[in-house]
From TrEMBL:
InterPro entries tied to this protein: AAA_14 (IPR041682), DUF4143 (IPR025420), P-loop_NTPase (IPR027417)
Protein known as: ATP-binding protein
Domain DUF4143: 199-347
GO molecular function: ATP binding
Species whose genome carries this gene: SAR92 clade bacterium H455
SUPFAM superfamilies: P-loop containing nucleoside triphosphate hydrolases
Keyword Phosphoprotein in annotation: no
Domain AAA: from-to ranges: 18-144
Keywords, in A-Z order: ATP-binding, Nucleotide-binding
Length: 401
């Protein structure tokens, strides 16, 4: 399956000399995507989890350069892929040194199943040397096989009902989506969760209470989209609130879950609350309503990440709630200004929520949608609408990424 991100990374190397940092969850397709960017005879792949590759990396950049014969004249510059190198404690120094010495002789792609942007908090030694890209699971728009657009919103395009339902039920990770077989799905999800909560946690953190961490992951799975109570989670797992916060940050950094925070600007009687958490694999939500909401949340997060990574602006995803307990599921901002709002409903027959008009007036929002999961596709650009409207999910999601 050809991913949208292949063309995005290809355009990156055609236009820029900086490294590309490509991150995303385990099994989302980073290795397949990166290896398909250039021809195999001009692409060199080094995986930290491979013993021989690890030895070469530990010997230093000159060993890597000699191994690929970097001084040889070629028709195109070689692409060097460093996969999972974030597990090396000195990876930033290694990458910085290699880039500074050889960036005119090659193109460099760094991939990983943990967030590579976390080092920004302590100062970014790679500043000016990279652009950051976040690889997400499959989405409605990506299944439509459209070329990447230079604009954020695209024209609507119909997706087959079976493809839409399969994406909702099997999730957006390529293997289970393509296989669509229950026994394979059960084994795949169990193994992925074991690798993430056991192997990755052990390698990238000092957390010892793995059983309690697994319990926390299960609790987050069953309350996806709900307001978070750290104290309740702490009581159920028998650790402190501070520990819960640290563990959730770790789970976020390993792409198990993601957070959405409340928008508080320009909201009368805004309620400063903790974030909501959603799963990267929405198929793990057993409740139908929670899965629908997580499905839309994942599509919106993919969109704001993709648009931002592509340089179209600064996009963020929030939810809305005030002290009168009026709430809307999602708000997307563009360059720090509210842009469009989304409320998720299971049925097209549900009445339009009056809360949408309230928040639209307060925030001066341009577009307001109540997205119905079971609605039939309508061939109309919904981003031409300027009042709260019930729209089918198939139409809405086809206009994102």
């Amino acid at each position: 399956m050809k991913r949208t991100y292949e063309q995005l990374i290809q355009h990156h190397f055609a236009d820029h000399t900086q490294m590309a940092l490509l991150t995303g969850p385990r099994q989302v397709g980073k290795t397949t995507t990166s290896r398909s960017i250039q021809s195999k005879n001009n692409t060199y792949y080094f995986n930290w989890d491979d013993i021989e590759d690890r030895e070469r990396i530990l010997q230093g950049g000159q060993t890597i350069a000699a191994y690929i014969d970097i001084d040889r004249l070629r028709d195109t510059l070689p692409l060097i892929i460093f996969d999972e190198i974030h597990k090396y404690s000195q990876w930033k120094s290694f990458i910085k040194g290699f880039y500074d010495r050889y960036h005119t002789q090659c193109r460099i792609l760094v991939t990983g199943s943990a967030r590579l942007d976390v080092f920004k908090k302590g100062g970014d030694s790679l500043m000016g040397r990279y652009f950051y890209y976040r690889l997400h699971p499959l989405s409605v728009n990506e299944l439509l096989n459209r070329a990447p657009s230079d604009t954020d919103i695209q024209k609507p395009l119909k997706i087959a009902d079976t493809k839409f339902l399969n994406l909702l039920n099997w999730g957006g990770f390529p293997e289970p989506y393509l296989k669509q077989e229950q026994r394979f799905y059960n084994r795949w999800t169990r193994l992925r969760k074991q690798q993430l909560l056991r192997e990755d946690i052990r390698e990238l953190s000092n957390i010892q209470e793995l059983g309690q961490l697994e319990l926390l992951a299960t609790l987050l799975q069953h309350q996806a989209g709900e307001l978070t109570s750290y104290s309740t989670l702490a009581k159920k797992t028998r650790v402190s609130v501070d520990t819960i916060r640290r563990w959730i940050v770790t789970l976020e950094s390993l792409y198990y879950c993601f957070s959405i925070r409340p928008w508080t600007k320009n909201i009368t009687r805004s309620l400063l609350k903790e974030p909501k958490y959603y799963l990267w694999d929405w198929s793990q939500c057993t409740d139908k309503g929670a899965r629908n909401e997580n499905f839309i949340a994942s599509h919106l997060l993919k969109a704001v990440h993709y648009w931002t990574d592509q340089g179209l602006g600064e996009y963020e995803l929030y939810f809305l709630r005030d002290k009168d307990k009026r709430e809307v599921d999602f708000l997307v901002s563009k360059n720090q200004k509210p842009w469009f709002m989304v409320e998720v409903k299971s049925s097209i027959k549900e009445k339009l929520s009056p809360t949408l008009a309230v928040f639209q007036k307060q925030l001066l929002l341009k577009h307001v949608f109540q997205v119905a999961m079971d609605g039939d596709y309508v061939d109309q650009d919904i981003f031409t609408l300027d009042k709260p409207t019930i729209v089918p999910a198939k139409t809405f999601l086809s206009q994102l990424v």
